[in-house]
Design brief:
GO molecular function: sugar-phosphatase activity
Organism: Aetokthonos hydrillicola Thurmond2011
Shape: globular
Helix content: 40-55%
Order of helices and strands: EHHHHHEHEHEHE
Protein name: HAD family phosphatase
InterPro entries: HAD-like_sf (IPR036412), HAD-like_SPP (IPR051806), HAD-SF_hydro_IA (IPR006439), HAD_2 (IPR041492), HAD_sf (IPR023214), PGP-like_dom2 (IPR023198)
Strand content: 5-15%
Structural class: alpha/beta
Length: about 200
């Protein structure tokens, strides 16, 4: 693992925007586990390798992608409802990604900050509450607030607008290719936190 200094924000910037799952909170395996358990009764076996390549997609986009890619007919509402129930039962096990959350705590009250997540609001708020971050952000933007999820830039642009900061003055923290593409389309610089494990994963766009 690389030094935490590798993901410190480099001036100039006026605001910081953070993805939630896999960036602030170590939730990716839990999301995989609960998605897989929710889909199995409907005849679909989700694999970890494929799922990890789709991180950043909203729930509806994930199911749409599965149905299109594998010629399946998962019911988005039924599967999502089941998955969220399973996730909430295990949400107490979620841990923070300290290298990133340390940055949040350091900048709290000093730099405008937002969460911009492709998950729905209730799940994001519950996750942030578990890791004691819920009250540290100026605003939280989720898939419930915008017409299109990542890799479209809508979530990040909405966050910048709420923070009253130009998109070009924002730094985004992300862990997914879709999220990094969304930041690029929004005209924002981005830090791929996967640099903590792989020095080739830094993106400044």
């Amino acid at each position: 693992m690389m030094s935490n200094k590798s993901i410190l924000p480099v001036p100039p910037y006026k605001a910081l925007i953070f993805d939630c799952d896999g960036t602030l909170a170590d939730t990716i395996f839990l999301h995989f586990q609960t998605w897989a358990d929710a889909m199995r009764p409907f005849g679909f076996e989700l694999t970890k390798e494929w799922f990890y390549e789709q991180t950043g997609l909203s729930a509806m986009e994930l199911i749409k992608t599965i149905n299109n890619t594998f010629d399946h007919e998962l019911d988005p509402l039924l599967v999502t409802s089941s998955k969220e129930k399973l996730y909430r039962e295990l949400i107490h096990t979620v841990k923070e990604i300290q290298a990133v959350t340390d940055i949040v705590r350091t900048h709290c009250g000093k730099t405008p900050m937002a969460v911009a997540s492709g998950s729905n609001r209730s799940i994001v708020q519950a996750t942030l509450s578990v890791i004691d971050l819920l009250d540290l952000f100026d605003t939280i933007v989720t898939i419930d607030d915008v017409p299109r999820g990542k890799p479209c830039p809508d979530i990040f642009l909405e966050a910048a607008e709420r923070l009253k900061v130009s998109a070009t003055d924002c730094i985004v923290y992300e862990d997914s290719n879709g999220g990094l593409e969304a930041a690029r389309r929004a005209g924002m610089r981005a830090i791929d936190i996967r640099i903590l494990w792989n020095s080739s994963s830094f993106a400044s766009v």
